[in-house]
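dumping this here before i forget
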Amino acid sequence: MHRYGAAAAFAWAAVLVGIVGAVLSRSLAVLGDAVHGLVDAGGITIAALVHSLVTRGVTSTYTYGLHRAEVLAAMFNSVTLIAGSAYIVTEAINKLVSGVDVDPVLMAISSTVVLALNVVAVLLLHGGTTLNIRAAYLHALSDLGVTLAALAGAISIMLTGVKYLDVVIALAISAYLVKMGIPILRTSIGIALDKSPVDVEGLRRELGLRVHDLHVWALCPDIKVASLHVEVEDPNTPMSKLEDLRRYISEKLERHGICHVTIQFELGKCVAEHDHEEEHKH
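structure:
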């Protein structure tokens, strides 16, 4: 098994232990950690899968590869984070009304096991070369922090006997999940709707050419794509000059992280420019 796949397996094992620990200890803090771990495990799995698929290259059907799988996973994960947070808040309110009864010893045991499993996942992800894997590594690190918070809560309850600390920590974790989930959801929706990741009008001015039908979108957060039409006045423009112009445009776009560029040169003003602009206006 590839080490990234192994990291995903350890992350899922941590989720399973966390869910069992939350049920047995009746701890919302442990449950919040499990929800966060669930999303991270999904993210690591997708990262491992995308890494595997990307290394195989594109296919005749998926000519850009399966980078959008990362976006779909991010959208699902962010919704899960927000929904899980809402559930934790609801349960916290119920516990405040009915009374808190948690087992701090079981909380500590399950959190310790989860922590150990997550440490292994972090070590397996460490040193990843792609942005996708590095993002999964950072998520796994954040999961360690949430687990440590749950473990600290268990120890605090054992030392002080104040069981309401479980609710306080759970609410803090819930707020963290929402803070983490909303930007991911916003970004993934923007990518799914082909929102431009750069200022298109500013880019047009920066190029300083007669450009129309300039479109920029992202396949995933790390891969930006552009297409544009460039007007050429002289019908006798040599190929060498067109190649210099192509290289100039590509270098300008590359400064904005746009590495996949399609350029169409046109002689004079495009007769359908008005229609193009109306059809493609965003």
